[in-house]
């Protein structure tokens, strides 16, 4: 049995956008299917800010793989052991928050990739092979090939060191966390501020120089989404389940209220 392909990674390699659906509140096997039906390519399982337990994460990973959407876990910065555990149990990628320099980039590679790039221990349960695991050496090579390691750039320090982070072998994506970056630059929520624009341009240049993918999240303003995707951002978080439900529910409520008001005039 061949390893299950990482849909998001294949799209990036083909120069296509890989769009993420963040599971913050929703649970259960329907979540990845809903995300895939809506046109998304990877499921962000939020283990940093969300209330997702390791059990929740594993179930979402297992449900994502046959649905054709890549399960990618956002870990806590100081919890690379938890991230490795997620990879053992079906995750096809890890997003590591607030990576500020080459040392931190090397630490994530060391913990999350197998030798020779890293020193991750073998403990995978085989879900990425539909439980038909080949020999260990072959399994490690195939699993490593499908993993996406994503370094989040969320500070002025991370921006300043973007080139050395991008140069780190084993890191696939530099992902700008728009909200925290704007906070760190002293312009919270001002995604069009010159400082934020300059940061995006700097990280985008580092990605081009070292052949890495540019990603972004937290920016939902259409004008600036267009602008930053124009710089090459292709690994893009589209929004969270909570935001999607609220947006559609509010729009429907406004429509129904307008219908009720309209009926009073007839």
Look up the CATH topology.
TIM Barrel
CATH superfamily: Phosphoenolpyruvate-binding domains
The oligomerization state is single chain
Gyration radius, to the nearest Å? 19 Å
Percent of residues in helical segments?
40-55%
Number of discrete domains: 1
> What is the N-to-C succession of helices and strands?
HEHEHEHEHHEHHEHHEHEH
Question: In a few lines, what is going on in this structure?
Answer:
α2 crosses α3.
Write structural notes for this entry.
With 266 residues, the protein is α/β, with parallel strands linked by helices. The protein has one domain (7-241): Phosphoenolpyruvate-binding domains (TIM Barrel), CATH 3.20.20. 47% of the residues lie in helices and 17% in strands. It contains 12 helices and 8 strands. It has helices at residues 7-13, 30-37, 54-67, 80-88, 102-112, 136-146, 156-160, 162-166, 178-184, 194-210, 222-229, 241-264; strands spanning 18-23, 42-46, 70-74, 93-96, 148-153, 173-177, 213-217, 233-240. Strands 1-2-3-4-5-6-7-8 form an 8-stranded parallel barrel, surrounded by 8 helices. β2, α3 and β3 (70-74) form a beta-alpha-beta unit. α2 crosses α3. The longest helix has 24 residues, at 241-264. 42% of the residues are buried. The model has no long low-confidence stretch (mean pLDDT 93).
Structural descriptors:
266 residues, alpha/beta, TIM Barrel, 8-stranded parallel β-barrel, 47% helix, globular
């Amino acid at each position: 049995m061949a390893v299950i392909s990482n849909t998001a990674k294949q799209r990036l390699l083909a120069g296509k956008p890989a769009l993420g659906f963040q599971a913050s509140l929703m649970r259960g096997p329907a979540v990845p299917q809903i995300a895939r039906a809506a046109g998304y390519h990877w499921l962000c399982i939020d283990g940093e800010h969300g209330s997702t337990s390791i059990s929740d994460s594993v179930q979402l990973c297992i449900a994502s793989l046959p649905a054709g959407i890549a399960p990618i876990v956002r870990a806590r910065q100081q919890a690379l052991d938890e991230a490795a555990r997620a990879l053992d149990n079906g995750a096809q990628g890890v997003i590591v928050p607030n990576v500020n320099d080459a040392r931190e980039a090397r630490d994530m590679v060391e913990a999350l990739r197998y030798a020779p790039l890293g020193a991750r221990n073998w403990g995978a349960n085989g879900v990425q092979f539909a439980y038909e695991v080949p020999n260990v050496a072959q399994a490690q090579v195939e699993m490593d090939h499908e993993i996406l390691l994503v370094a989040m750039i969320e500070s002025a320090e991370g921006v300043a060191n973007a080139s050395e982070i991008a140069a780190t072998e084993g890191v696939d994506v530099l992902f700008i966390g728009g909200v925290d970056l704007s906070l760190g630059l002293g312009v919270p929520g001002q995604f069009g501020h010159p400082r934020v624009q300059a940061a995006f341009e700097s990280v985008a240049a580092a990605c081009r120089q070292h052949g890495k993918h540019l990603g972004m999240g937290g920016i939902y303003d259409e004008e600036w989404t267009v602008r930053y995707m124009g710089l090459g951002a292709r690994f893009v978080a589209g929004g969270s389940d909570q935001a999607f439900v609220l947006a559609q529910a509010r729009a429907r409520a406004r429509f129904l209220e307008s219908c009720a008001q309209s009926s009073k005039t007839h």
